[in-house]
Amino acid sequence: MAPLPPDGTARFRFNYVVGSNDHSFQIRSGGSPAAVGTLVDGFLSAISAAMFGLTVTTVEFAASGSSIFLPVTSGIEGNAYGSGTPIVEQVPWFYGFIGRSAAGRKWHLDLFGGVSIGINFRWSPGESGAVDNAIVALQAFGSNLLGIDGSAVTVYTYANAGSNAHYQRKQR
């Protein structure tokens, strides 16, 4: 498939902090900031038991065709999820949720702050109730979760886990 421009859909960027590290993830959606904020709150609440302390700091929005992200109010700014603080070895740990758009494009969302990466770096259905709940919450987005091609995303029933290489190198 030919590459598509990254600004082909409206995007929300959720900025958050885990420990002392800033991160963000992006949701492509045509929904309102409040609607998408409610869905993301459900997702983060569902995975909270498997997360170190995570606080949403800001939410930004970029319209389709624009690369400029501007602050919006989604209603979850300042919300905290999970508990505890990762030790140095745990800072790079993340959960990787994956799926495909209706048009066949790959989709993923990586979330830093996972408390465990498992024994085989994948959470299959039934291995983690919190990860299972988070997947169900993402699947509940329905047409409010779009791929880069603008079509709805089907979120797979498993999640990957890992240790981000950037943070591994930074620790060395």
Describe the secondary-structure layout.
Layout: E1 11-18, E2 21-28, H1 33-47, E3 54-62, E4 70-72, E5 80-81, E6 93-101, E7 106-112, E8 122-123, H2 129-139, E9 153-163, H3 165-171
Helix pairs in contact: 1-2
Summarize the structure.
The protein is of the alpha+beta class and 172 residues long. The protein has one domain. The protein is built from three helices and nine strands, in the order ββαββββββαβα.
Structure description:
This protein is an alpha+beta fold and 172 residues long. The protein has one domain (11-171). The chain has three helices and nine strands. The protein has helices at 33-47, 129-139, 165-171; strands at residues 11-18, 21-28, 54-62, 70-72, 80-81, 93-101, 106-112, 122-123, 153-163. Strands 1, 2, 3, 4 and 5 form a five-stranded antiparallel β-sheet that branches. A four-stranded antiparallel β-sheet has the order 7-6-9-8. The model has no long low-confidence stretch (mean pLDDT 95).
